[in-house]
Specification:
The chain is an alpha+beta fold. It is built from 14 helices and five strands. It has a five-stranded antiparallel sheet with strand order 2-1-5-4-3, sandwiched between helices. Helix 2 (50-57) crosses helix 4 (77-86) and helix 9 runs antiparallel to helix 11. The longest helix has 18 residues, at 183-200. It is elongated, with a radius of gyration of 21 Å. It starts with 13 loop residues before the first helix and ends in an 11-residue tail after the last helix.
Length: 297
Amino acid sequence: MDEQPESAGRPLDRRAELSEFLRTRRARLKPQDVGLPDFGRHRRVPGLRREELAQLAGVSVAYYTRLEQGNGRNVSAEVLDAIARALRLDDAEQAHLTHLAKGKQHKKKALGRAQQVRPALTQLLDTMDGVPAYVVGRRSEILAWNRMAAAVFGDWAELPAGERNWARLVFLRPEYRDLFVDWEQKAIDIVCTLRMDAGCYPDDPRLSALVGELSVKSAEFRGLWARHDVQEKTHGVKRLHHPLVGELSLHFETFKVTGDGDQSVVAYHAEPGSASADGLRLLASWGRDAARVPSSP
């Protein structure tokens, strides 16, 4: 039986998020990973036991149990650091743990307000001739883009504003499944980013509604969301199968927008002299005629 989706529009439960995050991080560790003896088949739980994790972190079992039950209001930064080390968390996971345990409330009015991109930043995108680039905000919303981004990823101007969202595109539109050669990794990246947003803004009704919608409509999203994985992917390579120019291998870099940490500029480029660079030049020469990914029948 499929997992029940989270209620659309209802704020995410920070206590439940903290509990599940710690439980899933503990479950992925084996005793031998952290230098503890393994008594094999007699273990009744996957991964480390609570008492083993507490021992590694230097806290009492009762204290850690309360934390894993979602009671993180009075936990100190030092204890969180110790637990993060014991769980072998990376920087993104440790930041997520801190947000879940000691997060602050946000005004609902501010969370519901549409994100705005500075006009000068939009103008900067337009000057990046030959470089696909866009601005992405909270909830994986695509806020602004240049002509080359439209030529590579599709003409987002033709979509309603609410559909200009990477999560909706990747999980709900078949043409994006065809566009990304490694669609599964793109899907993982999107869900990990949304999880980080949920840690920072669990009371965001639009984020909760997005999670609820995707949970109802996509079994793949439900499965990935239940893993509670988080990551920050600031650079890398994306391989695309473009309907007009074929295979593209593009490097990307992500830059936080100064003054608005919830917005990032993502820019792509191809290796000079490569077939992918030729493909980008061809798309640039076609202009608006290239700026759409054909819809699947």
